[in-house]
Amino acid sequence: MSKKPAKKETPMMQQYWRYRGEVPEDALLLFRLGDFYEMFHADAEEGARILGITLTQRSGYPMAGIPYHAALSYIPKLLAAGKKVAIVDQVETPQPGKLVKRELTRILTPGTTLEEHQLDANKNHYLLALTSDKKGFHASWLDLSTGDFRIASEENPSALMPLFTSLDPREILLPETVSAGWAHREELRTWHEEFDYFCGTHAVTYQPDYQFEAAAGARSVLDALKVHNLQGFGIEGTHPALASAGAIITYATDTLCSPPQNLRKLSLYRSGESLLLDPATLRNLEVFQSAQHTRQGSLIDAVDATATAAGARLLERWLAAPRLDLEELKRRQQAVQDFLEEPGLSSRVHDSLKTIRDIGRILGRLQNRIRNPRELGGIRDTLDALPGIRETLGEFVGSIAEALRGRVEPFDELRELLDSALNAELPSQISDGGIIKEGYDEERDRLLDLSRNSKQWLADLETRERERTGIEKMKVKYNGAFGYFFEVSKSNLSKVPDDFIRRQTLVNAERFVTEELQNKEREILSADEKSLAREEELFRELVEKILEHADALQDTASALAEIDLFIGWSQIAREWDFCRPELDAESILEIEAGRHPVVEQMMRRDYEGFSGSQSFVPNDTWLSTGEEQIALITGPNMAGKSTYIRQIALIVLLAQVGCWVPAKRARIGLVDRIFSRVGASDELARGNSTFMVEMNETANILNNATERSLIILDEIGRGTSTYDGLSIAWAVIEHLHGETKKGPRTLFATHYHELTQLETSLSRLRNFHVSVKEWNDEIIFVRQVLPGAADRSYGIQVARLAGLPNTVIDRAKTILEELETEGEARPSILEEEAPPKKKAKKAAKVKKEAKQPIAVEQRAAEPAAEIETNREGQLSLF
Length: 878
Ligand SMILES: Nc1ncnc2c1ncn2[C@@H]1O[C@H](COP(=O)(O)OP(=O)(O)OP(=O)(O)O)[C@@H](O)[C@H]1O
Known about the structure:
Blueprint: H1 11-22, E1 27-33, E2 36-40, H2 41-51, E3 56-58, E4 61-67, H3 71-80, E5 84-90, E6 102-108, E7 126-133, E8 136-143, E9 148-154, H4 161-167, E10 171-175, H5 176-182, H6 189-200, E11 203-207, H7 214-225, H8 242-256, E12 267-268, E13 276-277, H9 279-284, H10 299-302, H11 309-320, H12 326-340, H13 343-353, H14 359-367, H15 373-394, H16 399-407, H17 412-421, H18 442-469, E14 475-479, E15 483-489, E16 501-505, E17 509-513, H19 515-548, H20 550-576, E18 582-584, E19 588-594, H21 597-605, E20 619-624, E21 630-634, H22 641-655, E22 665-669, E23 673-677, H23 690-704, E24 710-714, H24 722-737, E25 745-749, H25 758-761, E26 765-775, E27 778-787, H26 795-801, H27 806-825, H28 829-832, H29 840-850, H30 854-858, H31 862-871
Parallel strand pairs: 1-5, 7-10, 9-12, 10-11, 13-23, 18-22, 21-25, 21-26, 23-24, 24-25
Antiparallel strand pairs: 1-2, 2-4, 3-4, 5-6, 7-8, 8-9, 14-15, 15-17, 16-17, 19-20, 19-22, 26-27
Helix pairs in contact: 7-8, 11-20, 12-20, 13-15, 13-20, 15-16, 15-17, 16-20, 18-19, 26-27
Bound molecules: adenosine-5'-triphosphate.
Adenosine-5'-triphosphate (ATP) binds near residues 641 and 643.
């Protein structure tokens, strides 16, 4: 931050320093000076560097400025550079010789911006606060742009991490000393490591601890929501998470420079009501971002066919909190069905939705006094689209579409008002005028006429005076310093009459006024000013009228967002042949011809891809906690093991947000958590080794999975020596299987062929393999998941496909042969580590079979049939 210099400052700079002292140290102060926002001292140096603008000097100190009308395009760059931006505006018209009055009008921070161009239209924009006390950890999050405001408390902060990752907040508020203490608590070590990393990738603002005081927080929340108690929201007034909610309100108030006006509801988030996906699983399944950190290639992108930004944000919120509530999920599924059954009507509604504006966010800005005429135009255009949308929705027969129609209000009166009041084209600033339609307000029309007639009068005067003086090219002109004047070129000066009063001499011309012109000028300027003032008054009245309907408009906006999302899903279901999954509370998972939604879409778009195949090969799945609880999947590299196990997790996730799923048929017993242990590339940046990350994630799964969870494990144990890895994988499977009759539904993909022997000792484990064919020492990927274990890994053939030099491939083959011969002489892991007593007998049998597993023979008859079926377009030949 800039330090105030010791020398005597001008009054303006004294004013500057007063505000500089008021705003947070890490904010850059933009100080309005005429037509510029100026930065001074250290702010100027930093601002000029970030914005790439010229650094100048004023009275010996650094200064850098941006034109005020271009501020909107500069500010996002400062925010993107992680800076906060404080704005001090001029709040009166400058008078010569008088220090202009200024006020701090706004502090823009990553989590509290509201302006359209500073928000990503398709993403929620959360400010998150977290604190802790003896009872546990308390979080609150608010999207100030829409007023979405929630709280959550958990004894164990790890339970909040899935939520934080899904929210992907723009800014995090933490209590300074309380949060510093978390690092020293041994029991929080694992969580803190993860949270610390999370904070490292998000903007964090530390606040004094007292801002997180629970009782004061409860009061701020009541004030902000304008209610006497929180019972209506089902929240106790002593709920500990109100501490963080209070900190959010205080921060929002400080940054908006007045209390937020668009909060009307507080909701309590209970982790037990959602399907939880821990941060690693969200990353591994590429739910919100692909492995390349792009939206393209993620699940959200694959199931997003929304036409509106609000619809896209709703999808993000729903994917962040998949449900366990059958009734709600069935409502969503039915909505998709209603729209799917009426494609013509649905696309008509969707087309109309493309014309509506983001009224949820517009209202947020209007309520928080960020007002511009075009936003009113946005509300008007949206309301204009409503009758058509309602009419089309009325033609649907489905019950849910009908219910949704009921939530879209017509707003006839407000629509008529805005239609009659607002011009078709609107300015971006109130001060530009031209907002109000002629004929809407008598007084404003009168002033407008006066100003217009005066302009005609000026034109007449110009003609009259040209005739009188004989100066043919004399013109009436206007400028801010002198007002209206006659401009006469030097060559015509001799013709100027005596009643012309000289005002200014230019190189080639002179400027004059007359008494008549001066009188008229006063009349015109006052008519213009009065007309503008009247327009501003009418504008404010219109805003108030809109805000009277704010709640109803918000409700309509959320219904429109749902309709948009459902229609989008119905289009995806039709285009990609999704089915409506049966949902129940049984612990089973049955998928017929399931597909990976993202890989399938990418393959269709890019059929020249490495897979070499144009269409995705569907596969079946059957799991149940009591019978076929664990599917152990083996198969060569590149066969499709990872894709298969991920597709199952994605199908379950989609089903639990209410979307239809990429399968021919599916029956899904609701899942409380999805765990995955897949790749680890992201984690290396955290300073953990691949193996450490793998073990951390595995520990998390084993400690937290319940009977209702779904677990996908990919190549567990590969990050260490073969025998260590194999032993760990072996023990993990045994643990998940357990002794009892039930356990989490698990898919385990592995290259450790020894594990396939577990089928004989673990009653609820089944072997599967992803099949391939050999053809002249090359392999053909068939991508079919079939019962039984794979015979070998074909790693060398795959390496050849990847382009390894022939010399290396040949040498590898020789080494492999040697190793295989040696391996036969070496004792197997089963002999090194005896299984538990009661399995000893079975294990002895396995040992016998290990060298020549029965599964291989069982599959001997399968290849011909597979080749036949898959040649029809699905076979991939390299
Ligand atoms: N069912 C399928 N239909 C068509 N192509 C598929 C299918 N499954 C996977 N693929 C293609 O095969 C590629 C490799 O799949 P995947 O990564 O799942 O193999 P893998 O068996 O896990 O390999 P590795 O053991 O080497 O990790 C994928 O990128 C995809 O393009």
